[in-house]
Amino acid sequence: MENILEEKGLVYNNGMAWEVFSKHLDQQGNTKVFVIIDENTQKHCLPYFHKNYPSENGFETITISAGEKFKNIETCLNVWNTLSEKGADRNSLIINLGGGVVTDLGGFVASTFKRGLQFINIPTSLLAMVDASVGGKNGVDLGHIKNQIGVINLPEMVILDTKFLETLPQAHIISGLAEMLKHGLIHDKAYWERIKTADFSNKIEFEKLIWDSVEIKKKIVTKDPLEKNLRKTLNYGHTLGHAIESYFLENDNKPTLLHGEAVAIGIVLATHISEESLGFPKETLKDVTQTILHHFPKQTFTQNDIKEVIKLLVFDKKNRNGKVLFVLLEDIGLYKSDCVVNNTLIYSAFEYYKNF
Amino acid sequence: MENILEEKGLVYNNGMAWEVFSKHLDQQGNTKVFVIIDENTQKHCLPYFHKNYPSENGFETITISAGEKFKNIETCLNVWNTLSEKGADRNSLIINLGGGVVTDLGGFVASTFKRGLQFINIPTSLLAMVDASVGGKNGVDLGHIKNQIGVINLPEMVILDTKFLETLPQAHIISGLAEMLKHGLIHDKAYWERIKTADFSNKIEFEKLIWDSVEIKKKIVTKDPLEKNLRKTLNYGHTLGHAIESYFLENDNKPTLLHGEAVAIGIVLATHISEESLGFPKETLKDVTQTILHHFPKQTFTQNDIKEVIKLLVFDKKNRNGKVLFVLLEDIGLYKSDCVVNNTLIYSAFEYYKNF
């Protein structure tokens, strides 16, 4: 299992990606090609995809509704039924063209239809490029619980083309940024220093940061594909981040947060908890908080909100024996996984976030 | 991937199985143990299971409705939700105690909950013992299409205890027999000769036949876990068998066939097609047909029934490029996979079955 990622292709050389992609498809000779898109990528990304893959044999598109709330088993059922009706067989290929919802759901649908079809991810959002694209995690939500159902199964290939980012709303770019900041914090001080001061309007600098972010994630998941230990660090900020995202999603009084917006808050909270319980440097905590709040709008939490968020922590996939387990940091790049965190520390972190 | 089966345990030594099972659970120290059962195994098998596994830590049971028509995503959703509510985490263990529906569905639920929990199969029907138990195929039906959704993922352990068969209705014993007859036909002439003349009331002889049947299946799936070629032979009789089973299931005018009853018909049809197109010996065809009809009641098919069954063949998982592909035999143990079969041959096979 160690070299599972190396068996599959990750193509992120912008200039060559589509050439490699076309050659791969010609060689594979899949019986049918299905492209899963959502309403947004149908409009903004499909034409560009088609220009770069003017297939003679053609492909069929399957469109799902856009947004996290459709990342569920019902949508899977629709796609499975469509594949069935359109005669997909075991040698068909699924191409997931979209953000994290499309690649997560499409990867799960492909991995389970007739016990597994090949699939290729073409992430079109920054979040999907730097996070969902690499590592083979796929799946859907169960009610409001994120990613409860899924498998780990690698795509045949991931195509990264930053051209897709040009059609992305600014809030979604920022959302992806949260994962890039996280990659710096958990693994690479130099990267953190670069990204926190980066000029994102400089296209070349921004692209370089994206590739490096993917490299960090790839390095981590290659070392620990099944999340025995190191890979848990990728969950930094996600324990509370996921719970906040779920809570805001199910509450009509709250705005729906993008994944990265919720994770950004989770990163501040986890870093404050790290400071209180593992001695994470105070100055760096301040630095992290300032950087996050520079990019992400502050959200308000009542005491009741916090109580409800804490309740949702019981669904975290890292939990063991009913205990909520956090990944925390002693310093940038120095992680400690499976940390038990009491509620006082969580309330205190929210207090810090509120008053900063 | 070649030795994937060898990494996991198959325990079928009757006398030792429960001891090995208990030791395994003690060593693993899973946080929680969930036993998936259906209404039948709750009544007939759970007490015996509990007697053999008097766990101090206890376990929780999750009961699903019995029968193939509940082997679907809706039932999975119920079980996933129950696991969520009862606080299953990644270190929980699922034990599937039941026939093929329970082991197929339970294996899929376990493989996909939080991206995969460990599971153990304890097949309680003959069919599940000689077929579903080995090889890691799991999944559920999509509408009336059998096993369209699933993954290949091995249980940690399979416990075979023929004591469970004592509570099984005779029709279900016979249903399992179809797969055992198939194992002889596709792989082992000597086994075929033994099983066709066996005295099933002789408990020792019967048990020996079961173990040998499992050994044949294990040998095949170990050589070809991902069904590139050899494993396809296990599908002998299933191409038409599955279609007949689906057709009878969705038709109120037809009796619901047990899996083995449908496969038994499929075996006769496939063997007739083998005789017509690959020169399978006429005498052996007669022998096969007599053996099957000795055990399984004959079903009637109108021309329209046959037409509808043929329509359902397009959903067969072995199909490629819209072509229905059969596994056929030149003789016992001599298979040919990916055979294109035209409808005339299928009608002719039904005619033969009818007139025999």
UniProtKB/TrEMBL annotation, chains A, B:
<dbReference type="InterPro" id="IPR050071">
    <property type="entry name" value="Dehydroquinate_synthase"/>
</dbReference>
<keyword id="KW-0547">Nucleotide-binding</keyword>
<feature type="domain" description="3-dehydroquinate synthase C-terminal">
    <location>
        <begin position="176"/>
        <end position="319"/>
    </location>
</feature>
<keyword id="KW-0456">Lyase</keyword>
<dbReference type="GO" id="GO:0009073">
    <property type="term" value="P:aromatic amino acid family biosynthetic process"/>
</dbReference>
<dbReference type="GO" id="GO:0046872">
    <property type="term" value="F:metal ion binding"/>
</dbReference>
<keyword id="KW-0170">Cobalt</keyword>
<dbReference type="GO" id="GO:0005737">
    <property type="term" value="C:cytoplasm"/>
</dbReference>
<keyword id="KW-0479">Metal-binding</keyword>
<dbReference type="GO" id="GO:0009423">
    <property type="term" value="P:chorismate biosynthetic process"/>
</dbReference>
<dbReference type="Pfam" id="PF24621">
    <property type="entry name" value="DHQS_C"/>
</dbReference>
<keyword id="KW-0862">Zinc</keyword>
<protein>
    <recommendedName>
        <fullName>3-dehydroquinate synthase</fullName>
        <ecNumber>4.2.3.4</ecNumber>
    </recommendedName>
</protein>
<dbReference type="InterPro" id="IPR016037">
    <property type="entry name" value="DHQ_synth_AroB"/>
</dbReference>
<dbReference type="GO" id="GO:0003856">
    <property type="term" value="F:3-dehydroquinate synthase activity"/>
</dbReference>
<dbReference type="GO" id="GO:0000166">
    <property type="term" value="F:nucleotide binding"/>
</dbReference>
<comment type="function">
    <text>Catalyzes the conversion of 3-deoxy-D-arabino-heptulosonate 7-phosphate (DAHP) to dehydroquinate (DHQ).</text>
</comment>
<keyword id="KW-0520">NAD</keyword>
<dbReference type="Pfam" id="PF01761">
    <property type="entry name" value="DHQ_synthase"/>
</dbReference>
<dbReference type="InterPro" id="IPR056179">
    <property type="entry name" value="DHQS_C"/>
</dbReference>
<dbReference type="InterPro" id="IPR030963">
    <property type="entry name" value="DHQ_synth_fam"/>
</dbReference>
<dbReference type="InterPro" id="IPR030960">
    <property type="entry name" value="DHQS/DOIS_N"/>
</dbReference>
<feature type="domain" description="3-dehydroquinate synthase N-terminal">
    <location>
        <begin position="62"/>
        <end position="173"/>
    </location>
</feature>
